[in-house]
Amino acid sequence: MAPKKPDSAPSPSRLNSRSAQIFERARKVLPGGTSRQATYASPFPIYVRSGHGARVVDVDGIERIDFNNNYTAAIHGYGHPAIEKVVMEQVRNGTGFSFATEKEVELAEILCARVPSIEKIRFQNSGTECVMWAIKAARAYTGRPKVAKCEGAFHGSYDYAEVSLEPTPDNWGTEDKPASIAYTKGTPQHMLDDVVVFPFNDVPRAKKILEAEKGNLSCVLIDPVANKAGMISATREFLDFLRDFCTRNGVLLICDEVLCFRLGYHGAQGEFGIDPDLTCLAKIIGGGFPIGAVGGRDEFMSVFDPTKGKTKVPQSGTYSGNPVTMAAGAESMRLLTRPVFDRINALGERARQGLRRAIKAAGANAQVTGHGSLFRIHTHERTLSGYRSQYPKPDERQRLAQLCEYLLDHGVIIAPTGMCAVTTPMTEKDIDQFVDTVGQGLTTLKLS
Ligand SMILES: Cc1ncc(COP(=O)(O)O)c(C=O)c1O
What we know:
By secondary structure, this protein is α/β, with parallel strands linked by helices. Helix content is 39%, strand content 14%.
């Protein structure tokens, strides 16, 4: 099959790059040339040679500031000396054993101390895995089969979690009853039937949909700043409704903080005042290494406990809790003090305000959303209320792709969805330069 036509072409200088050459080799051995949908770019991705601080250098020697930072995971940027030190020490002492290590206890202690709703925690290797184990825990605890999630919210690649991740106007159904749409071809119908989809921030509709299923629901999954639903913040009313609904009906409230744990010292739940039953963590808690974790009240976490008769949820995993990740994660978290969170959140606010000024000055048809150190550029001006309102039309997708290409050619990396994240090595100067470059891009490309 011919490769998908790109929304925007790379500049001629990149067409003969070493990245383009490596991609030709890659396509022969990796389907589509990559191991990860998110690193694929059409017509070819950039291949990175190294990363230092807030910047990465590609295989052609071009340096760029990285506002994607491995989809927000690399909160300390690249090659942080303190993390490098603990990792190298652990590598010399062994990278994984068929025994537990003290490193696992250290990271667990840090996280339990920071997040009041987390009394116990279990480690895995990715955000996908931790969401999967949280759902399994909720099913085991409640004895009920169904999972409820917001339309368009990304919770990783577990079959149930990815339902209605990307429905389209022709299949998403009515707003009163959003359809459960498969993301991966071949998803069995029974899985779709077990996922209840409701609109983000829409209490009346969510209430009707969830009430109708209350006897079947094991859990409600919520990301309070769901990127794919527009990266707008959940309202107080919506969060209070979900907490109350779950409490009244014996349903577990799962807060997916894989992405948004970076919003504060006590995580997004601290920022938003959420008291979930289970929490999913990943990304920043691994210090740049693969990680996932599910934590929560002792009562719910006891489903993982093998000391209490036959374990209800026997979670294992060859690399779960491996000491390299644990050491890197503990150091990453120690570095994330309250003033550090305040600093990166203030830089995020500086970026949002700067971008709003730049959009206005350029007369561009665009807007910025986000919270704390996370923000997202949209190439339209519709009022954002959730997944459907953010769903980009073809011309809007194309304008965003053009902006991303422009930024890549001018030393800046952002996610193809327009998502950006501040890292601790970034400075006010970096943010201001970024804003200027986006402003120049909007003007040059006449994105109005
Ligand atoms: C909110 C959320 N949940 C789950 C995941 C899945 O995490 P991973 O990519 O580590 O599997 C992501 C990944 O970006 C995420 O943003």
